[in-house]
Amino acid sequence: MSISQLNIDVFRAINDIGKEHASLNPIAIFMADYMIFVLALGMLVYWFTQTNKNRMMVIQGGVAFVLAEVLGKIAGTMYYHNQPFAELPNVNQLISHAVDNAFPSDHSILFFSVCFSFWLVRKKEGWLWLVFACFVGVSRIWVGVHYPGDVLTGALFGIVAALVAYWLVPKLGFVKVILAKYEKVEQSLLPVKAKADDKYKNF
Asked: What secondary structure letter does DSSP report for 4?
């Protein structure tokens, strides 16, 4: 389907920055391609801090991502366009990408669903995750693989899904049951430290 001129104009404004300031391109490439590993590490750190609050937050982020991805797939069946580098001339394409439906941005769906879930629970550092999500969204435009509309739609789906998961997941009793059973298994697999701590208490 045809892309609006506004979508193209905003894309050009962001994508052309990489032509004028090539020294910033490695940062954009890192944000666009590798920030996902930072997000994964953050989720692992929160999970293994072994607090119920953090673990429920990670679960909410995972549920939000699934919900947002379903919304994205439905939207993708109703609206289709390829990546900017496949449709426009003189695009500053900085990473390789298959030519397929670029709408909406899967990276934006992932980052905004998870990072907004973090913000809802842990506002003290949650704003930093939201900043990362915004940077990732802009970077996907910068490197030439998404239009602004793809990113904004993905962000919207992610935020809406995060709000739904924040409200829904704590109400699901089976989630708490599964989490409690997981923690029992985890404790049974890590008895050594507990025994060592008990030993030193006797001194």
From this structure: P
Token readout for 107 is: 């990276």
29 touches 94 (CB < 8 A): yes
Six-digit token string for 52: 């119920």
Residues 141, 179: one domain?
Answer: no
Using CA atoms, how far apart are residues 147 and 153, in angstroms rounded to an integer? 10
Measure CA of the first residue to CA of the last residue in the chain; give whole Å.
74
What are the residues whose beta carbons fall under 8 Å from the beta carbon of 165, sequence distance 6 or more? 60, 61, 63, 64, 67, 113, 117
Domain tally, the chain: 2
Structure tokens at 157: 């789906």
pTM: 0.89
Provide the domain limits for residue 201.
Answer: 173-203
Q: What is the pLDDT of residues 123-157, one digit of tens each?
A: 989 999 999 999 999 999 999 999 999 999 999 99
